[in-house]
Each structure stands twice: as C-alpha cells, then as structure tokens.
Amino acid sequence: MYPPIEPYEKGRLDIRASQFPVADIPPVVCNDPLVVVFLHGGPGGGVDPKDRQFFNPDKYKIVLFDQRGAGKSTPSACIDHNTTWDLVADIERLRDKLSIEKWHVFGGSWGSTLALAYAQTHPNRVRSLVLRGIFTLRKSELRFFYQDGTSHLFPEEWSRYLRPVEPRKRDDMIKAYHSLLEDPDEKIRLGAAKAWSRWEMATSRLFVSQDSLERAEEDDFALSFARIENHYFVNDGFMRDGQLLEEQSIAKIRHIPIIVVQGRYDVVCPPTTAWALKMAWEANGAESASFTFHLVQDAGHSSREPGIEKKLVEAADEVVEKY
Q: 140: Cβ–Cβ under 8 A, 6 or more apart, which residues?
C-alpha cells in the first residue's frame, strides 16, 4: 500500500430527485494526471481514507465518494431513490462535474457489481476495470451468504445472526431482516442492524478482525450498512437475475482491460462468481481485451488482507502504466 495522503480537494455533488430531499454525495479528489474512481462496497459501506493507498499518488488523480445514504452522504441510511441505476447515474454525474473524459474504475464486492453496471451503461467512459471479490447479485449468491452456504462454515456466528428472527420466518432471512430493519421501534431496528452487520464483518476475513466486529457495533455505521444492503438485496439489486453476466451485457465491455483479484476462501462472494465472469468474458472465443485473473490462495473476502492488498496495488500500478 502507498503511504497515507490527504486530499487536496473536497466537495459535494447535489442531486435532486422528485419527492426526494437533496442527496449530498461528497467526492474526494487527489493528485494528477490519470483518474481512478473508487467504488466502495456494501452497498452502504462508505469510503475509508486508506482506500486512497491502493494508488500511486504521483500517477493518479484519485476520486473517492460515498454512495447515496452511506458514509458522509446525506440523508444518512436513506433508501428512497436509492437503486443500482441511481448510483450509476451519480457516477456519471460526478465524472461530468469533474470534466473527466475517461477514467479507470476500481471496485470490490458490491463495488465490483456497481463497476460492472456502470461500465455496461457507459462503456466508452472506462479505461480499465480492477475488481475484487466479484459479486453480481444473482439469487444464488445471496442465498449462499444469507441462507444456506456460509452458515455451514461459521455456525457460531450464524446462530447470532438467527437470534433476532422468529423461527417461523427463517426460511427467508433477507425478507425477515427487511421487516426488522423497517420496524417502527428504534431499538428493534438498531438491534437488527448490528446483527446483520456483524454477520458480514465476522465472515469477511480468513482470520476474524476484532476491529471489524467493533465497527458492526457502531450505531450509525450499522444502521446505514444494514438498511441499504438489505434494501438492495430484497429488491434483487433492481436488475434481472444474472443480468451482469448475460452475453448482451458482457459484449458491451469486452474491449475494456480487466484485472480480477479474488480470495480463494472468500465466503461472502465465493470464487465461483469471479470464475463465471471469466467464462462469460471468454465465451465462444470472442475477441476481447485482456482478462487477468488472480486467485489469492491465503485470503478471504476483505481488501485489507495482505495478499489481496498486494495484488490490488500491483493491478492499479499495471493499468495506469498500460492504459
């Protein structure tokens, strides 16, 4: 990782939608000349100052922003007018506001979903894609993590995750949590938010991070993270099942160089989805730009694991030199 740096410019992107209050999305910009936009995970996770450290500040202008309802974006935890396609439009508004013709797009987990959706909508605005922990919001992916899959590997944490939900409602945990997270009782909402957030924080690394578990107990973070994530997942990401992997979708972006970094033991976004993306990219011998696939053997899901960090830094260095 590159040394910590401070942004030289901060600002807000004001978005007005009908029957919706102003949504302030704060972009953070660092040095010239080429531009990378960093798309955070969740949805609802928000950016972290350390996210700048994937990039060489002597090579890149670095753009970080909190997506609708996340981090310093306001209104916090708001799910009104908050869909995949609203966020895609926000990214394009931000590019236009900053007078950037084309940029590199870098995203992990939900950030990889959003990066693919953005690139497929605006393919001529993307120089390269660096993606980590591929997630395409298919029903099978959601079921594995929230219903029947990861639960077999983390039974003690799964038991904690089950507690807020009545046994008769446990056949659809995403739907059950949606009711809890929208409950009129603030105590119930917050308890559910912390349980939802802990489940992901407890399973994201090969070795559980105490700092991550403590973050799941922070009221503001937990509520924003859980409420927005659940809103997206209960609505299937506002797209067709498998839409991002369809031939008509992949064909739009095959000309874009892509580097994928995936943890072998990622139980949040398992390697099968990254492999499905690779197979879709290379289907029928179609002509394409380079597809580079790094499977990190000693890592789970988190971008903060050493092997993942190393490969992401190398990927960011490679694309800025080549593309």
A: none
